[in-house]
Write a structure and sequence with these properties.
The chain is mainly alpha-helical. 80% of the residues lie in helices and 3% in strands. It has helices at residues 2-10, 20-47, 69-100, 105-128, 134-156, 165-184, 194-200, 202-292, and strands at 13-14, 56-58, 61-63, 102-103. α3 (69-100) packs antiparallel against α4 (105-128). The protein starts with a helix and ends with a helix.
C-alpha cells in the first residue's frame, strides 16, 4: 500500500481547473492579438507609397527611405518586446508545470499551438521587414500543416505519439535565432550587407532543418500507428467471416436435423395409419365370416 501511495504521489497530477501554467498559455495567445495589429500596421506603412522599404540603423541614427521610419521602428520594437514576453511565459509555464508536477489536457493541446502561433507570426513579421527570407517562413508553415494534419488524422484512430527531443531542440533554436535576427539585422546595411544578413539567418536555417527532421519522425510514427491500427482491423474481419460461416453451418445442420425429425415423424404417422388400416380390414373380415355362419 505504501508503494502504491508513493507512486501516486510521484505521478503527475491531471487537473481539470485552469492553473498558473494554463493562464500563462492563455496570456501568450492573447499577446498575439496586439502583435497582429501592430504587424498589420507595419505592413501597411511598408507597402504604402511613402518611399517604400523599412528602416535601418547607423549606430543610433535611424535611416531608411521610408518617410514613416520612426513609426516603423516603434512598431518593430513593440512587436519584438511582445515576442520576448511570449517566450518568457512559454519557459515559465513549462518550468512551473514540471516543478509542481501538474498536467492538464488544456496545456497539452494549447501550449504547442501557442508556441507555433508566436514563432510563425514572428517569422512573418521579420519577413515583412525584409530581415529574413519568405521561403524559410513558407517551409516552416508547410511543415506544421503536415504534422498537424497527421496528428488530427491519427487522433481519430486513437494513435498518440509523444514529443521527441528533436522537436524540443527545434523550438529552442528557432526562438533564439529569431531574437538574433531581430537584434542584429536592423544594424546591417540593406544593400551592402546582404551576405551578412544570410549569415545571421543560418541559425534559423538550422532550426528549419531540425523542424523537418522532427516533423518526418512525427509523421512516420503517426503512419506506423495508423498502419498498425488498420492491420488490426483487417485481422478482425476474417474472424467475423469464420464466425459467420460457423453460424451458417450450424443453422444448416439444425435445419437438416429438423428435416430428419420431421421425416421420421411423418414415417411414424404413416406406419400408425397402415397399422390402423390393417386392424380395420381384419375386423371387417371377421364380421363378414360371423355373418356367414
Amino acid at each position: 500500500m505504501k508503494e502504491m501511495k508513493n507512486k501516486m504521489a510521484k505521478a503527475p497530477k491531471t487537473k481539470a481547473k485552469l492553473g498558473v501554467a494554463n493562464w500563462l498559455t492563455i496570456l501568450r495567445m492573447l499577446l498575439m492579438i496586439p502583435f497582429l495589429a501592430m504587424m498589420s500596421a507595419g505592413a501597411a506603412l511598408i507597402l504604402a507609397k511613402t518611399g517604400g522599404g523599412g528602416f535601418r540603423y547607423d549606430g543610433i541614427k535611424l535611416i531608411g527611405s521610408n518617410s514613416h521610419k520612426l513609426a516603423l521602428s516603434i512598431i518593430y520594437w513593440t512587436c519584438v518586446s511582445l515576442f520576448i514576453v511570449a517566450m518568457i511565459t512559454d519557459f515559465v509555464d513549462g518550468f512551473y508545470a514540471r516543478k509542481t508536477k501538474t498536467v492538464s489536457n488544456f496545456g497539452k493541446v494549447f501550449d504547442p499551438i501557442a508556441d507555433k502561433v508566436a514563432t510563425t507570426m514572428m517569422m512573418i513579421f521579420l519577413a515583412i521587414f525584409n530581415f529574413t527570407y519568405l521561403p524559410i517562413v513558407i517551409l516552416f508553415i508547410v511543415r506544421d500543416i503536415m504534422v498537424d494534419g497527421s496528428r488530427m488524422y491519427a487522433a481519430k484512430k486513437d494513435v498518440k505519439v509523444n514529443a521527441n527531443w528533436w522537436g524540443k531542440i527545434k523550438t529552442i533554436i528557432v526562438s533564439l535565432s529569431l531574437l538574433v535576427i531581430a537584434f542584429s539585422v536592423p544594424w546591417l546595411k540593406e544593400n551592402e550587407d546582404s551576405l551578412k544578413q544570410f549569415y545571421v539567418n543560418i541559425p534559423l536555417l538550422a532550426g528549419l532543418i531540425l523542424a523537418w527532421v522532427s516533423g518526418i519522425i512525427y509523421i512516420c510514427k503517426y503512419l506506423k500507428g495508423i498502419t498498425k491500427d488498420n492491420n488490426l482491423d483487417s485481422k478482425k474481419e476474417p474472424i467475423i467471416e469464420t464466425s459467420t460461416n460457423e453460424n451458417n453451418q450450424a443453422i444448416e445442420k439444425s435445419d437438416m436435423e429438423s428435416m430428419e425429425i420431421t421425416s421420421s415423424e411423418e414415417y411414424k404417422n404413416q406406419l400408425t395409419q397402415e397399422i390402423e388400416q390393417a386392424k380395420n380390414n381384419s375386423n371387417s373380415t371377421n364380421n363378414s365370416s360371423d355373418s356367414f355362419f
